[in-house]
Amino acid sequence: MDYEKSRKNMVETQLSSRGISDKRVLEVMGKVPRHLFVEEALISQAYNDHPLPIGQKQTISQPYIVALMTQALMLKEDDRVLEIGTGSGYQTAILAELADKVYSIERIRELSQKARKILDELGYFNVLYKVGDGSKGWKEYAPFDAIIATAGAPDVPQPLVDQLEMDGRLVVPVGDRYSQELIVVERIKEGIRKTNLGGCRFVDLVGEYAWDE
Ligand code: SAH
Question: How many CA atoms lie within 13 A of 6 on its CB side?
Answer without folding.
Answer: 15
